[in-house]
Amino acid sequence: MTEGDLLPIVWAAIIAGGVFMYVLLDGFDLGVGMLFLTHPDKAARDTMMTAVAPYWDGNETWLVIGGAGLLAAFPRAYGIILPAAYLPITVMLIALIFRGVAFEFRFKAERSQFLWDIAFCVGSTVAAFAQGVVLGAFVQGIKVEQGAYAGGAFDWLTPFSLLVGVALLPGYVLLGACWLYGKTEGALRDHARHAARFALVGVMAAMGVISLWMVAFHPDVRARWFAMPNILFLAPVPLATLAVAGLLWRGLSKGPDSRPFLYAITLFGLGYLGLGVSRWPFVVPPSLTIWDAAAAPRTLAFTLVGAAICLPAVLGYTAYVYRVFRGKVSSSHGYH
Predict the structure, then answer these.
(1) Of 257, 290, 156, 265, nearest in space to 203 by CA
(2) Fewer Cβ atoms within 10 Å of its own Cβ: the N or the C terminal residue of the chain?
(3) Is 289 helix (H, G, I), strand (E, B) or coil?
(4) Least confident of 43-52, 237-246, 253-262
């Protein structure tokens, strides 16, 4: 395998890893935001906010890494995906900004605090939905002609993309509820348990519907999963998904409080793996592979040096923050 063949694979792994880290880390605090108004008690909402306060802004670093990596390593793909999903990406960014402003203002507001609570919940929900729509638009395929986006401003708006947008909501709620289950105590912990179980049912239903949709309407995906000998190697993925879902359900009543969040991460990982298997090696399905869209080998090698410096630093401070703020949290004493 030549350098030109290997470097796009390395960069695809880096970008996929960055996006997955964003989905997990910002996903749980978006999920907490979506759950924010489900608890009527102000002290409980204060605890929910404290449970994500040390992490939420750093979690979004991974979104920057994914976007910047795509621009640096696969500029042709960046130039196609951005105009294809320009509107939902814009909505997502506005919602994230709106959510961030609400997060900061809530700590200072007194009479208007409940309005900022609503803003925090709405911003989190809209951002999560927009991310799902972008994912759905990517998975269903993007129209490309002569190396450029050839669709319209609303080609992303399809039943499938809307379905994925809705499906991502219980996914993030599941992450957020499992995070709260591991971080809180008493009534709020019980509330998180019920929310997690409700969300888990929604996640499994959504995964089933989306999987069936892709198999039914995308012959290439159907061939990828069911052709021999692929089916022998890929059959464990859905079976493992069902097993992890069962363990998560059980973990919400037995075992360490931190375990359900780990199961939720595993569940997302299996879903992410399924999408990767369905669309590999396309960076712009169904026509542009990672090798078609990659920058020149010398560019990939040069930017890889920067990634080799930056990624360990980001991983290091992320791990440090999560280590410092480990343990349970309460509204009166914060982390303890």
Answers:
(1) 265
(2) N
(3) strand
(4) 43-52
- pLDDT band, residue 325 (cuts 50/70/90): confident
Which amino acid belongs to residue 306?
A: G
Provide the pLDDT for residue 139: 86
DSSP annotation string for 236-288: HHHHHHHHHHHHHHHHTTSS-TTHHHHHHHHHHHHHHHHHHHHHTTEEETTTE
Question: Does 286 sit behind a cis peptide bond, omega within 30 degrees of 0 on the bond before it?
Answer: yes
Nearest by Cα to 48 from 259, 195, 264: 195
DSSP state of 110: S
Q: What element of type H or E holds 50?
A: helix 42-52
Smallest Cα–Cα separation from 183: which of 47, 319, 57? 47
Q: What is the pLDDT of residues 203-221, one digit of tens each?
A: 999 999 988 888 887 787 7
d(CA 7, CA 4): 6
**pTM value > 0.85:** yes
pLDDT digits (tens, 9 = 90+) for 131-161: 999 999 888 888 888 778 888 888 888 999 9
DSSP 53-80: TTTHHHHTHHHHHHHHHHHHH-HHHHHH
Residue-level pLDDT at 154: 87
The Cα angle at residue 31 between residues 28 and 33, in degrees rounded to 5: 115
Percent with pLDDT over 90 in the chain? 27
CA 225, 268, 242, 205 dihedral sign is negative
Backbone angles phi, psi at 313, to 5 degrees: -65, -45
Average pLDDT score over residue span 114-140: 90
Q: Which helix (H) or strand (E) holds 334?
A: strand 334-335
User: Average model confidence (pLDDT) for the chain?
Assistant: 86
User: Measuring CA to CA, which residue among 31, 27, 33, 25 is closest to residue 116?
Assistant: 33
**CB 57, CB 317: distance < 8 Å:** no
Distance between CA 158 and CA 329 in Å, rounded? 42
Measured CA distances, 183 to 41, 57, 65, 99 (Å): 17, 18, 27, 22
